[in-house]
Structures are given as structure tokens and as C-alpha cells.
Design a protein that fits this description.
Helices cover about 50% and strands about 20% of the residues. It has three domains: about 5-145, Response regulator (Rossmann fold, 3-Layer(aba) Sandwich), CATH 3.40.50; about 155-295, 2-Layer Sandwich (Alpha-Beta Plaits), CATH 3.30.70; about 305-560, Alpha-Beta Barrel (TIM Barrel). The protein has about 550 residues and is α/β, with parallel strands linked by helices. The strands form three sheets. Strands 11-12-14-15-16-17-18-19 form an eight-stranded mixed barrel, surrounded by five helices. A five-stranded parallel beta sheet has the order 2-1-3-4-5, sandwiched between helices. It has a five-stranded mixed beta sheet with strand order 7-8-6-9-10, with helices on both faces. The protein starts with 6 loop residues before the first helix and ends with a helix.
Length: about 550
């Protein structure tokens, strides 16, 4: 929604008033009254008025509207202007001798009345000045409560107005709706910021129109995330199609929706929209255009997640988190040779049993606990490396995960230095895995941290390469020593010839850059031999062993030798 007040007004220039009046005498009276203070534009017919309003509404401060025009009734002009979200912000003073029209015009959005025959000039000027000042004060407030790109409410005012809706309508069931654009950052990267901004404005306009008249409140929460709070409805599919109309075709993007229907008013507003986000996340990888709906299954998941978050501190204190080790094999030799391992976190919960890392790792990343868990795992793994060396004389490098959140810590290099120093192990025995997707979040910051770590003697592995976030030429500019092909990337590639050609191209590029290559998810002899033929350096996967607790890993090493 655009503001009605002009930049010229802010610079102290005269305000402009549109007078819509067909009688010459009345135009002369108003012109003589106003011209000493204001710039005046006249329209003698409804058609002229609408044309001026369309062309000049951004510079107008006020409209004086006569109801009896030769080509249309003034109420029709008022109705058309107030029905348009862009021009509706303009204040109107209706000029008429018909007192019966007053209620109708006020209901349509008129600000005030000037009765005919006209009162003294000073009365007219006082009414106009009061209306303009009230409008400008309201307009300034409107800009503080609106997102400047889309004209929707900003989050602070949105949550305030949503709470007011609850207070005024305690018996009306409501829905909390969240929308966002899948991989919006790629839209900006491929087509530019202006293109992405235009897509967001289109979504905002579609959202506003879709909920217009239904009592909905809408806002832009952040970059590509929108919220809507409205009376309960069940046509989520139709609503999503209206909001996404033209977005996929014109902007090569897909809008996804999450709905928390019949929202529980016993929980706070932010949590209602957190549930809507959970529903949206459920359809994140869906291409059907369906809307996700928060239901009993998601409620159970939310309760389970809350339990895990509550138990995290006790789990750290009680050392419930343990490292499992998956062996890696060098396949340059005639027989694969055990050369290193990857440390993978496992949680043996005292009541829930083994909790899947696929559940608790994303949860801890989202809630900021992953940094503490990673630090705990680094110390445990470094201590295990030292223990194996002292007890068995083994020198087994082990890779550990460094999350995107860890990399945002400027003290990370010092923390990792302390970990290896306290354990008394070499830097090259403590390998650091950074996921491919992390490099796309804040490439400059992460590259800087990775360079510092390499200068300290750590070896950096890009983990999960091939998950679809980067192009092949990305690896030419990154400070890494090893490229790890993602498990799903490897498995998918073996399904067709083109996939194998892609793996061959990646391995060839890595060799030309002097990078060591690791393939995850190797499960068959066929995969092993194919990777060996393509000169992959190292493999890991269930073909050799699943991840093992430390004691079982030790037995495995004794069996295989090192």
C-alpha cells in the first residue's frame, strides 16, 4: 500500500487539494478561499475526477467532493476510490446540502462534511486544515506499521492487531497461516534483487486480495515469509492457488503454505504461527502445490520435540550423547585399507531409547543448542583419538561435524585449537566437515573462518556435496582439502548413465584441484568397483560397516588392521 502524502509536503511546499465540483459559482468561491493557502486542482465531472485521482493521488493532500455531478453520483466516486487499497488512504470531505447522505458517505470512508450553502471561509479552512493534519499524522503512523516493500503490516503491528481481533471476536474460530517461497535466495542470485522484490510484491498483492473482505490481517514477517490471521476457512488449496497465481510462471518460484486451523487461543500468537510453520515444513519438498495443515501428528511431534529440548541439559550432564564411528577405506590399494573414520552423534535417552539424529540435530540447530552439542562431541572425539593412540598405538584421523552456527562464532578457531591441545592430538588427525549448504548461507564469513582453520593446520572437508545447493565451479574458490559426495547423490547416480557421468566429472574436477575425494553411502560391490575405476580416493558405507560405538569400532579395527 502506498502512502498518500507526497515528498513535496515534507519539503515544506504547498499542499494540493482536488476540488470536484460542477457548478462554476461554487468553484469560484472555493478557489478564492483556498488559493492563498493551497494549490488547487479542479474537476467538473466524475470522469475528470477519476483521471486526476489516478494520475496525481500521490501528491494530493485532500479531496473536496460534491455529490451531484453531471455524469455520476459523487458517492460512486467515493466508493471506487475507497475500494482501491492504494487510493483508499486519501481523505475526502463531502460537500452537500443533503444531510441524508451523511451516514452513507461516512460509512464509505468520508472524513468530514461541509454543508451547502458554504459557511464562512475561515470555517472551511479550519475544517480542511484539521482533516489534513489528522490524515498526515495517521499516514506517518501507517508507514511505521507497514513493510515498505509490500505495504503489508510489519510483524510488531501485525501481532498487536491479531491480538485485538481475538479480544473483539472471542467466539470466532481463527486460522494462523504462514507462507514462504521455496529457495527464495536462489531467485535473487539468478535474477537479481529487483526481480526478487517484484515477486514479493506480487505475492503480497495476491495475499491481500485473497483475504480482502474476509476479515484477514496480513504481514510480511521477513525476507520471503508472510503471515495471515483470519476467520477459519477450509478452502486452503483454493487460497494457495490465488496467492501463488502467476508466481511459478512469471517468477520461476513456488509458494508453500502452512495452516494452523482453529488456533488454540490458550497459546501465544507467536507459537500459533510456529505451528503453521511446522505445517509448511511438511510440504517443503512437495511439488503438488498442497498446503500443509497442522494436525494431531504434528502436535505429537511438537510435544516430542519440546521433551527433547527440556532434556538436553540433563543429557549433556549425564553423557547420554555418544560418538559412533563409521570407518573409511582408501581404495587406491588392491584391497581397501582402513584409513580414517567419521564421528556421528547418537543419543541414548533413558526413557525414549535411541533418538534419531535426523530428529534432534535439526531441532538443536533451530533452537541454538547445536553449538553446545558440537563442542561436547569435539571434546569426546578428540579424547577418543588420544585414547586409541595411548592404548593401541593407532593413528586414526577422525572427522567431526562443524555446523553453520559454529562457523558464525568468531572464536571458533581458538576453541578448536583448545580441543586438540587439551587432548594432545595433531591437527591433521582431527578433520573438520562443513556441509556444502553452509557455504551458501554466508560464503564470505565461512570462507574466512575455513581459511583461518586451514592455516592453523586443520584439514577441511566439504560434506554432503551434490545436495543441490551449489554448482561445480563453486569448489574451485573454496578453502577445502576434501570433497565428500553425498550419500543420496551417490545412490542416485548409479541408477542411470548420466548420473555416473556426473560423478566422473566431479571426481575429475576434484583431482585437477588437488582435492581428496570421499564417497558416502557405498552399499554394494558394484558401487565400490565403479568408484575405484573412476579414481575415487576414499569410500564409506554399509558395504564395509555401519557406524559403531567405540568398543565395537575397536574390534573392527583389530579385525581389519590399520
Amino acid at each position: 500500500m502506498e502512502s498518500g502524502f507526497s515528498d513535496s509536503r515534507l519539503n515544506g511546499e504547498r499542499r494540493k487539494i482536488l476540488v470536484i465540483e460542477d457548478e462554476m459559482v461554487n468553484r469560484l468561491i472555493l478557489g478564492n478561499t483556498l488559493r492563498g493557502t493551497y494549490d488547487v486542482v479542479f474537476a467538473e465531472t466524475g470522469a475528470q475526477a477519476l483521471e486526476i485521482l489516478n494520475d496525481q493521488f500521490r501528491t494530493l493532500s485532500l479531496v473536496l467532493l460534491d455529490l451531484n455531478l453531471p455524469d455520476m453520483y459523487g458517492v460512486d466516486i467515493l466508493h471506487r476510490i475507497k475500494a482501491d487499497a492504494v487510493t483508499a488512504v486519501l481523505p475526502f470531505i463531502v460537500m452537500t446540502a443533503d444531510q441524508d447522505a451523511e451516514v452513507q458517505c461516512l460509512n464509505l470512508g468520508a472524513t468530514d462534511f461541509i454543508a451547502k450553502p458554504y459557511p464562512k471561509p475561515e470555517v472551511i479552512l479550519a475544517r480542511i486544515l484539521r482533516t489534513i493534519e489528522l490524515f498526515e499524522g495517521r499516514d506517518i503512523l501507517r508507514w511505521t506499521e507497514r513493510d515498505q516493500l509490500t505495504g503489508l503490516y510489519n510483524p510488531e503491528f501485525f501481532f498487536r492487531y491479531a491480538a485485538q481481533f481475538d479480544a473483539r471476536h472471542p467466539d470466532i474460530p481463527t486460522d494462523a497461516i504462514l507462507l514462504d517461497v521455496n529457495r527464495f535466495h536462489m531467485l535473487n542470485e539468478r535474477y537479481g534483487r529487483a526481480f526478487g522484490d517484484e515477486a514479493l510484491r506480487r505475492i503480497a498483492d495476491n495475499l491481500r486480495q485473497a483475504l480482502q473482505g474476509a476479515g484477514g490481517i496480513v504481514c510480511r514477517k521477513s525476507a520471503d515469509t508472510f503471515l495471515a490471521y483470519c476467520p477459519h476457512r477450509s478452502d486452503y488449496g483454493d487460497l494457495l492457488r490465488l496467492i501463488g497465481d502467476g508466481i511459478d510462471k512469471d517468477y520461476h518460484a513456488r509458494v508453500r503454505m502452512g495452516v494452523y486451523p482453529n488456533a488454540d487461543r490458550a497459546i501465544d500468537m507467536e507459537r500459533r504461527f510456529a505451528r503453521a510453520k511446522q505445517a509448511a515444513d511438511r510440504v517443503k519438498t512437495s511439488f503438488s502445490g498442497a498446503a500443509g495443515v497442522y494436525d494431531a501428528a504434528l502436535y505429537d511431534k511438537e510435544s516430542f520435540n519440546e521433551q527433547l529440548l527440556e532434556d538436553f541439559a540433563a543429557a549433556i550432564r549425564g553423557e547420554q550423547f555418544t560418538a559412533y564411528y563409521q570407518p573409511k577405506f582408501d581404495i587406491h590399494t588392491e584391497a581397501p585399507a582402513l584409513c580414517s573414520a567419521e564421528a556421528l552423534v547418537r543419543w541414548n535417552h533413558p526413557r525414549l531409547g535411541m533418538v534419531s539424529p535426523g530428529i534432534f540435530i535439526p531441532l538443536f540447530e533451530e533452537n541454538g543448542l547445536i553449538r553446545e552439542l558440537d563442542s561436547y562431541m569435539w571434546r569426546k572425539t578428540a579424547g577418543q583419538i588420544r585414547s586409541w593412540k595411548d592404548r593401541f598405538g593407532w593413528k586414526i584421523p577422525v572427522s567431526v561435524n562443524v555446523s553453520r552456527i559454529d562457523l558464525s562464532d568468531p572464536l571458533l578457531p581458538q576453541l578448536l585449537e583448545k580441543v586438540v591441545d587439551e587432548a594432545g592430538i595433531a591437527h591433521e588427525d582431527f578433520l573438520l566437515e562443513i556441509t556444502e549448504s553452509a557455504y551458501t548461507e554466508d560464503a564470505e564469513q565461512i570462507v574466512s573462518v575455513a581459511e583461518t582453520l586451514r592455516e592453523s593446520g586443520f584439514r577441511i572437508e566439504m560434506d554432503d556435496f551434490g545436495t543441490g545447493y551449489s554448482s561445480l565451479n563453486m569448489i574451485t574458490a573454496l578453502p577445502i582439502d576434501t570433497l565428500k559426495l553425498d550419500m543420496q547423490f551417490v545412490r542416485t547416480a548409479f541408477r542411470d548413465r548420466n548420473g555416473m557421468r556426473l560423478i566422473e566429472a566431479v571426481l575429475s574436477l576434484a583431482r585437477s584441484l588437488g582435492l581428496t575425494t570421499v564417497a558416502e553411502g557405498v552399499e554394494t560391490e558394484e558401487q565400490l568397483q565403479a568408484l575405484k575405476a573412476l579414481s575415487c580416493d576414499i569410500v564409506q558405507g554399509y558395504y564395509f560397516s555401519k557406524p559403531l560405538p567405540a568398543e565395537e569400532f575397536e574390534a573392527f579395527v583389530r579385525e581389519k588392521g590399520i
